[in-house]
Write a structure and sequence with these properties.
This protein is an alpha+beta fold.
Length: 433
């Protein structure tokens, strides 16, 4: 029988998961308005570019890194792509470092849909017509997580069913502790002019919040998924499309997506290949939009959930609905105040510490756990409060001016470095190393 130490070490192998990043941000003018210029010609054909694409909107650039096992390597790719994008920008163009868009026009005429290809453009037109178009302008960081072959062997996973089960446990775990990520890393205390209408604005709590984007005021379509099983996940999304609650399966915006191929139904036949965590705000104080610390923390949570997470079952979806309400409460807390779930957060970190106590230090840096505990003991150290602490006064105009200057500083930083070449594309669902 495997003892606890041996079991922990095997489970911890999963923390060295493959990780890929999808980082979105807007092209803007020097005065902090959405750029009216087209996709940079220097990047070539945007329909064929593997690493830098337009997302939903014409100004919304997305950088996509290949899957690697090292957080540092993922950030190296991201840095190269950031450099390539910024060198390709028109003179005066900048990248907005914040998840909520800058000040937009009252008539929203500056929100232009990306015209990457005809089918995508027509789909986006339908979305824009049925949804609130300004809500499509939010940006963020998506973190893709997948097992390595070594991880699968260490965990004793030998079948598609076992692998699917492990991914479902991780997905449920990220829903359960989404509030914790929002507390630690949420970085959208305010939205700017003309993003919300007057009625919505009147309902938003006053003051600097943890993360408007991660609250119910952020972008979403209100369609919940199912994580009881892979079949339930697929069937729920397909039913939502048939019932016209979703325009297409790709419009499912759950904070965790199960990924298995180009088509939704591929997950059932071929199994889950990785999961996409979609909850992270851009970090405005980091030149790349996300830190190594944040990626390592997410990888550690992934390993813990695979090892010790809740089992999928009949009550899973009902529980997730409660987890989302909990996250909403944390997202709308004041940025510099203790969370109402402080003790639960500290207890979770203690469990992570126990989980990693016998591990190799490459898997779990004790400093990482210590710093996250510090954020619970001192909310001034959370991402949102740290951002607001850089301002002369805690108000939306000061934040806008600070971010505009940051956009200029980051552009100067990247232009001061020589332009690097690209590596060959590697697909997340093909790599198991």
């Amino acid at each position: 029988m495997m003892n606890k130490l041996e079991s922990d070490r095997r489970q911890l192998t999963a923390v060295n998961s493959l990780v890929g990043l999808e980082v979105e941000s807007h092209r803007v003018s020097p005065d902090g308005k959405l750029s009216m210029l087209p996709y940079p010609k220097a990047l070539g054909d945007e329909k064929k570019h593997h690493f830098i694409k337009n997302d939903f909107l014409e100004t919304q650039s997305e950088m996509i890194t290949p899957p690697v096992s090292s957080s540092g390597d993922a950030l190296k790719y991201l840095g190269d792509y950031q450099q390539a994008l910024r060198h390709a920008l028109a003179p005066g163009e900048l990248m907005w470092p914040y998840s909520m868009p800058p000040k937009i026009r009252a008539d929203h005429s500056d929100i232009r849909i990306a015209q990457t290809d005809r089918a995508s453009y027509e789909y986006r037109l339908v979305v824009a017509k049925r949804r609130i178009i300004e809500r499509t302008s939010e940006c963020g960081v998506h973190v893709n997580l997948g097992f390595t072959n070594e991880g699968l062997k260490a965990l004793g996973i030998t079948s598609k069913e076992q692998e699917d089960h492990a991914y479902l446990k991780a997905a449920i775990g990220f829903f359960k502790y989404r509030w914790l990520l929002t507390y630690l890393f949420g970085s959208t205390p305010f939205a700017f002019d003309n993003y919300f209408d007057e009625q919505t604005t009147s309902n938003i709590p006053k003051g600097a919040l943890r993360s408007i984007r991660n609250s119910h005021f952020g972008y979403g379509n209100g369609v919940p998924g199912s994580y009881k099983s892979v079949t339930d996940y697929v069937n729920t999304i397909e039913k939502a499309v048939r019932d016209k609650d979703l325009i297409a399966d790709r419009e499912y915006y759950g904070i965790v997506r199960l990924k298995g191929g180009s088509e939704l139904e591929d997950i059932e036949s071929g199994g889950i290949k990785y999961i996409e965590l979609r909850t992270m705000d851009l970090d405005p104080l980091n030149t790349l939009g996300i830190s190594k610390q944040a990626i390592d923390w997410i990888k550690l949570m992934f390993a813990y959930f695979v090892a010790n997470g809740d089992e999928p079952g009949p009550d899973t979806d009902k529980n997730i609905a409660q987890y989302e309400k909990k996250n909403d409460a944390v997202a709308l807390e004041q940025a510099d105040q203790p969370t109402q779930f402080k003790e639960e957060g500290l207890e979770f970190i203690d469990r992570l510490n126990e989980f990693t106590s016998e591990s190799h230090e490459d898997f779990a840096d004790p400093q990482l756990l210590s710093e996250m505990k510090d954020r619970f003991n001192d909310p001034q150290k959370t991402a949102s409060a740290t951002l607001m602490g850089k301002l002369k006064s805690w108000d939306v105009q000061n934040l806008f001016e600070f971010l505009t200057e940051k956009s200029k500083d980051y552009q100067k930083y990247f232009l001061s470095k020589p332009l690097m070449g690209f590596e060959n594309e590697t697909k997340m669902n093909k790599v198991k190393s």
